[in-house]
Amino acid sequence: MSSPPPTRWPSGPVHSQASSALxxxxxxxxxxxxxxxxxxxxAGAVQTTxxxxxxxxxxxxxxxxPEELQRRVESTARELGRSMKLPGFRKGKxxxxxxxxxxxxxxxxxxxxxxxxxxxxxxxIEVSRIVPVGDPKIDLAGLPTQGDALxxxxxxxxxxxxxxxxxRGLEVGRAEPAVTEEQVDAEIELVRDxxxxxxxxxxxxxxxxxxxxxxxxxxxPVGRASEAxxxxxxxxxxxxxxxxxxxxxxxxxxxxxSGDLIPxxxxxxxxxxxxxxxxxxxxxxxxxxxxxxxxxxxxxDVTVKEVKSKRLPEVDDExxxxxxxxxxxxxxxxxxxxxxxxxxxxxxxEFREAALDVAVAQAQVPVTExxxxxxxxxxxxxxxxxLSHRGISREAYLRIVGRSEAEMLGEIRPEAxxxxxxxxxxxAVVVQEQIEPSDEEVLEALRPSAERxxxxxxxxxxxxxxxGRLEELRESLAARRAIDLIAETATPIAxxxxxxxxxxxxxxxxxxxxxxxxxxxxxxPDR
Length: 527
Known about the structure:
Blueprint lengths: L18 H17 L3 H5 L2 E8 L3 E8 L1 H16 L14 H8 L1 H24 L3 E8 L10 E9 L12 E4 L6 H14 L2 E4 L9 E10 L13 E2 L9 E13 L8 H5 L7 E7 L13 E15 L5 H6 L5 H35 L6 H20 L5 H8 L3 H29 L5 H15 L3 H10 L3 H19 L2 E4 H10 L2 H4 L17
Parallel strand pairs: 5-12
Antiparallel strand pairs: 1-2, 2-4, 3-4, 6-11, 7-9, 7-11, 8-10, 10-11
Helix pairs in contact: 1-5, 3-4, 3-5, 6-9, 9-12, 9-15, 10-12, 12-15, 13-14
């Protein structure tokens, strides 16, 4: 088996449980429930009353209908019956009434509420039409008697309500797209690099060279691996043996010495000539993607077969012809036009974002420290969830960036505050302007996804509706239309003039909203 050399990739009763643990379970289950399209059904099983509390918090009083609760009890009893053994019944065939009789209704009810609460929580949030921020506090006073409804309450932070200032006809700085000769030259260098040829050279390998190698790797015996650490070459005859690593071998592998190799691999081959064999004592990084090799000491037996140097073509008409153009002038014109279009799109996006931030600066948004902290935690957990799909754990990521979780949350806080303020202002604009995306807009928004999946847009709408997520899409489209309105009615002014205006604004005019006056990285309402 041949593979390239390894590189661095970049329990008690429910009513007595702590509400934080219950909330964690409810939140986790709610995510899965949304994904499986059960929220709509859960929403139909609950009734809610929302009471506004100070500092952008609400209390949602929830009532679960007796028939829904009974359905859940019977379902739980059937599930318990599958694992019970009773005389006269086959295993897994104990009927629900007998389970209730033997186990007791209260015990089954307790388990039923444990299982049902996450879904009822998600349904209550859906019915209440609130935008939750942070961890909920769930209060379940006790279990109801037979025939009564289950009641519990949720206290949670919500998106603050913005008091809008001016958001139409704003003066917003806009940078005009401009492409320099240096940018064109840099693109020309990329073309040269793409069309470069590798030529075999008769000299020792240098830092920017490529080498063709055969290699095998084996784990180093304990106590011997550090003898030639950091890639120092050892005498192949005297190198200690060790267990071979399955699949860790390659034949005629082309290795770029300036590439992203594991530490020491490049240093161990610098100065090597064709025909030379070297044994490298290396240590896999602690954050290496293969957990069985991460942090392990290893010996690589490497035979250098060729040393190759990259030969760049001259910058002339021949280069342009190889790139598919008539001559060098035409190539440069095409590059300039492409860069100008990229700059124009970037300027458009920055203008939209800057317009939104100016509107935010004109508004009053009561963002509390608790909400900012809660949103920062949400953003952090969302990022970790994304990283987990790439095989990167929380611990590994913190090692890579060299920071603690508290430091990361501190760095995220400014972005979390910006996001809260922007979302609050956009929500207020949607209400003020009575923006309601039409069915045609929803279909058009889903058309690209439908084409990729080879289905009709209506099929995706039906799927979203059954999953209880169609309204979420409509809200996202409404927010985008709100941004469009703010940007399209704004008057572009020179970026220098906009910066001068920002300096003239005083804290008394815009208060703490000054923190969001400067554009941050591109943001969209469905983040």
